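User: structure tokens for Alpha/Beta hydrolase protein, please.
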Amino acid sequence: MSKIPTANGIPIPAIAAGSAPENLDDVKKPEKAKDVAPSAPSRFSLKMTAGFWRSLQCIGMGLHYLASPRPPNPAFTKSIPSTISKSKGKFTLHFYTPKKYQDGKKAGKKYPAIVNFHGGGFTLGNATDDARFARFVLETCDALFISVDYRLAPDWPFPIAVDDGADALLYLINHAAEYNIDPTKLATSGFSAGGNIAITCPMRLTAHIKTLSMPLPEHRIRAIATWYPITDYTLSRAERRLTAIRPDQTLPPALTTLFDASYLYPADLDLSDPFLSPSKASDAQLAESIPQDVVFYTCEWDMLLREGEELAKRLGAPPISKNVRYKMIPGVPHGWDKSPDPLKPAANSEVLYKECCETLRDIFKA
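Assistant: Done. Predicted tokens:
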């Protein structure tokens, strides 16, 4: 049976046959944002469209949360100011804490922390979207799970989401003692657009640290766990669909156009910027900024499969030579794990969440 693609829990129509170009010769390589959405709607229209999809997403994720076992709620939240971004503002961190966290705090226990970024094309989604994954972090890693409500496009286009991600790390490093976090046992995680941020925010933080007059407290990002990320915006959506194993199961143009037109702004934005397209970063930049351990998942029916697979291979090969644990999940579309099924979690999602968290646990213990 054909599986219905979802976007953050929203069932979406499959791509109609014949809606993609027939061969790669018909596909132009984009270089600037204007090449991706040359006839993009106005920013106001994008905001209205994003609002509509966000309403649908709330319904879909509400159903997603209902399936047993129910995911946890954040123990508390913290609003923090942006310091890295040129666009000043605030965003919120959602803290999920393991059992007996308060007792551990009183005893002076230090916990690992996984800093997470939700998906939604940088345009949709909420920090609570990955609560099912959070449960396994709490139970398997005995770690804090801190999910970042980074600012969304179209109001806040690139690079604001990545800057907020780096700012979240910066805040937790500077306030580790307040939350009983061991700053030498940090990791990032993320899904889809959040998978991109999980990769790029350590790169952005590394660049920011070089501008500081005072060193940061001792810290170490041990790992990245990235799920079906977008990694190369110099590939057009048309090319991605043409090379997808199941183009009928990819996200529809109406949605990907919204995502790209919202986030890729202004028109002269260089799509090869490594904080946008980490696949375009130099070997030296990736070797310096990416932690030694990377857990990388892609989906067989996803239009992002090829670019994710290529980046995973590159990270694991010399001269970068990271420890990459890569898995392609067979027979599923992009975002399959956010299925809006109120009766049961998405097939195999909890097995893979546990597998990922067991790997992170072992990395923290090493």
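User: Anything notable?

Assistant: The longest strand covers residues 181-191.
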